[in-house]
Design goal:
This protein has 501 residues and is mostly beta strands. It has 4 helices and 31 strands. The chain has 3 domains: 41-141, Double Stranded RNA Binding Domain (2-Layer Sandwich); 171-365, no CATH class; 373-500, Porin (Beta Barrel). It has helices spanning 3-33, 55-66, 114-130, 134-141; strands at 41-47, 70-71, 81-88, 91-97, 103-109, 171-176, 189-210, 213-226, 229-232, 236-242, 245-248, 252-258, 261-264, 267-274, 277-280, 283-290, 293-296, 300-306, 309-321, 324-335, 338-349, 352-363, 366-369, 373-380, 383-392, 396-406, 410-425, 430-441, 453-467, 470-483, 492-500. Helix 2 crosses helix 3 (114-130).
Length: 501
């Protein structure tokens, strides 16, 4: 064989070996591309606050942290870990089930705002799914207990990097900053800062006093007093007092007093007193007193008092006094014209009370709860035909009704009845109710009476519920005359029976 043929044969053999290797390496990939492999991770979420914790909110972030796809639980099991997250009443429980059945689980009390809760959920899910959780779990276990019950003090939202401390100048004076003794050091720490129109320092450790607007770029430990307005770009421990308004972009521990309004962007501990409105964007532990409005975008432990409305977007432990009071859940009291709470453990006192789930006393002209509106009809020996609506909560109720036909007026007059009562469940569908009814008999135009008859009737009523909207009842009482133009002015016994739908 010639040398040229030998070289050609060697080249062909080398090319064949390379091609065979490529085919061998390509075959597994081709099978994988056609294979419906299980996702590395699955995520199942059970949450009572889907705007905070949900699959849509967390899946992408957990997948980015783990470096793999995260899917909903389906026909195929997760190849690396099945993650489940439960978020109820701010209790966060994260579980990761690994191949072979190995289970890791951790429950913590969620702290901070929505973003902080989401970060904690992603952090726990990622560490449990990787089984690298020991360090983070030990840190969480060593975390100090919450100050606010049942919710811990939320961590403030991440703020812009604070201004750099530029040393100390015990006394600083300004006309209109930067026409000031600290013009070259706007972020200086000052014990006394005085300004005519506008004063600015970094940190106040003492008093900042101005005829117009005063501003601290870092924090306030002491007093800010501005005729127009006061503002701090960091936390405040002390007092902000202004004829117009006060603003703290960090947390506040102390007091804000503003002729118009006050705003705390972080957690507020202390007192807000505003001529128009007070707002805390993270939560409140203390008192809000506003001429028109108080608001807490978060939980509150304390008291809100206003001439207009009070709003707590989460849990309220304390009291609200205003024309309109609104809270997610209430442990305490709401006193106003209109009171609204999803879960109420306490007292609602107002003209209109609305509660999805009420355990306590809801006293008003109209009190509405879940399945709490019932048509009602009854008859008695003194008022022959009665029909109306019963607004019931778990333990209290009100009735608004009309009647036709009475012992005094026969079937010539109509009248109205309003009742307020308490409901006592007994057992097996039986119950007992104690009520006071106020009845007005309206005179006909042809009658010479002025006001008609007005009676007050204390009554005891026993009932049996066949279903949530079918109850039979019967009772007795005495009718006491308050004003009588028709018939005899005497106390009469009364027996009644009826049906509630």
């Amino acid at each position: 064989m010639s040398r040229r043929r030998k070289v050609a044969l060697a080249l062909l053999s080398a090319m064949a070996l390379v091609a065979a290797g490529e085919i061998a390496n390509a075959q597994p990939n081709e099978r994988a591309s056609g294979d419906t492999a299980a996702p590395p991770y699955t995520l199942e979420v059970d949450s009572d606050a889907p705007d905070v914790i949900s699959f849509e909110v967390l899946a992408a972030r957990i997948g980015s942290d783990l470096g793999g796809a995260v899917a909903r639980p389906g026909a195929a099991a997760a190849s690396r870990a099945a993650i489940s997250i439960r978020y109820r009443d701010r209790e966060l429980t994260v579980r990761a089930v690994h191949p072979g059945g190995r289970l890791l689980e951790r429950s913590v009390k969620a702290e901070g705002d929505d973003a902080a809760v989401q970060r904690e959920a992603v952090l726990l899910a990622g560490n449990l799914a990787r089984d690298e959780a020991r360090e983070i779990l030990d840190a969480l276990a060593a975390r100090p207990p919450a100050v606010l019950v049942p919710e811990a003090k939320p961590e403030p939202k991440p703020a812009p990097k604070p201004a750099v401390d530029e040393g100390t100048q015990r006394i600083s004076v300004a006309f209109v900053f930067p026409l000031a003794t600290n013009s070259a050091r706007p972020n200086v720490t000052s014990n006394l800062n005085f300004s005519v129109f506008y004063g600015r320092v970094g940190t106040v450790r003492g008093v900042q006093l101005g005829g117009g607007f005063v501003y601290a770029t870092r924090r306030v430990d002491g007093v800010q007093l501005g005729v127009a307005a006061t503002a701090a770009a960091g936390p405040v421990e002390g007092v902000q007092l202004a004829g117009g308004g006060s603003l703290a972009t960090g947390s506040l521990e102390g007091a804000q007093v503003g002729g118009a309004g006050n705003i705390v962007k972080g957690w507020m501990r202390g007192t807000q007193l505003g001529g128009v409105a007070n707002v805390a964007l993270a939560g409140v532990s203390g008192v809000q007193l506003g001429g028109a409005f108080n608001g807490s975008r978060g939980s509150m432990s304390g008291v809100q008092i206003s001439g207009g409305g009070n709003v707590v977007t989460r849990n309220l432990i304390g009291a609200q006094l205003g024309a309109v009071n609104v809270a997610e859940s209430v442990e305490g009291a709401q006193l106003g014209v209109v009171n609204v709470g999803r879960k109420v453990r306490g007292v609602q006192l107002g003209a209109i009370n609305i509660g999805d789930d009420v355990e306590g006393a809801s006293i008003g002209v109209i009190s509405i709860s879940r399945d709490g509106i019932h048509p009602i009809a009854w008859t008695s020996n003194l008022q022959y035909m009665n029909a109306g609506v019963k607004f019931a909560t778990k333990y209290t109720y009100t009735i608004a009704a009309v009647h036709y036909g009475t012992l005094e007026g026969d079937f010539g007059n109509v009248g109205t009845t309003a009742a307020l009562g308490g409901h006592i469940p007994v057992r097996g569908g039986f119950d007992l109710e104690l009520q006071g009814a106020l009845t007005h008999l309206v005179p006909r135009p042809s009658q010479s009476t002025k006001t008609g008859n007005v009676w007050l009737a204390p009554q005891v009523v026993a009932g049996y519920s066949f279903a949530s909207h079918l109850r039979l009842f019967a009772g007795a009482g005495r009718r006491l005359p308050l004003s009588v133009d028709l018939g005899r002015d005497v106390v009469r016994p009364e027996v009644l029976a009826g049906v509630q739908f």
